[in-house]
Amino acid sequence: MDKSEKYIKMCEKAFEIQSQWVRNHGDVFVTERGKIAYWISHVHKLQKVKKGFVVRTEDDVIHLSKVTWLPRQSQLIEMAQEVGRSYGNILQAFFNWADTPYERDAEPAKKLFLSMEQIWLAFVMQKNYGKQWKDFQWIKMKPC
What we know:
By secondary structure, the protein is of the alpha+beta class. Helix content is 39%, strand content 24%.
């Protein structure tokens, strides 16, 4: 599981992905203080996550703390799936995409990202949302 600074920043800026987070036991997330944590159902059962914040009520006081979900590779592969296309077809599309230049006249995507989570996140963001990682943010791609 990638817990690098780059992957954390990529996930933090992937608002479309963050909004999809349905908490499951064992999910990895980062607290606003930079601590890596795991969503443990019985520990976090009284907490809710709304728009990237854990909402907790204690003595009639509402506490908010920012969190960033770090999807596992298997979760990213699941996000890439399409109705009517086989799992194998999506994997083949990923491998073809990873070998093509990420930007015009650039290196292939497989050489620009350091982990499988990073490259799968880049694939999902480009395939599903038309965005590429550049200058520490997701940029909407211009149509060719």
